Amino acid sequence: MASTNPAATSSVHGRRGLPAWLAVVCAAVIAAIVNVIVLIVGDAAGASLVLELNGKPDEIGAADVVIMSVLAPAIGVAASILIARWKPGFLRVAQVLAAVTTLVSLVGPLTLKTDGGTAITIAVMHLLVGGITIAALEGVRRAKA
Fold this sequence. Notes:
The protein is mostly helical. It contains 5 helices and 2 strands. It has a two-stranded antiparallel sheet.
């Protein structure tokens, strides 16, 4: 007997995908949680978590990390899903764009005037947000396949 439950149906290679709304929410929440953990670890490891912006020191706080960790993947995944409605196959392109954007975003933390611990902490956060975004897009892509 076949299941009529949409959640029980599988897509590519027997793997399940994610509904679009769930991918956006999960990407945002997971990125925020993971990056706050990275911030705590960076702080415990002795990173100053202070950046010099416009000649003034600016401390990176948990609120800053949560806001950026939620906004970046939520906007990126949601925009990609919307574009994919009109351009089939765009989700794969969006994954490549997310990877490239992640690598380009590493230039900032790796070239800032700050201590090595802070630079590594921020770079790890950028890599995690990029990876989570790519994974969320893959989940949506599988659901559509």
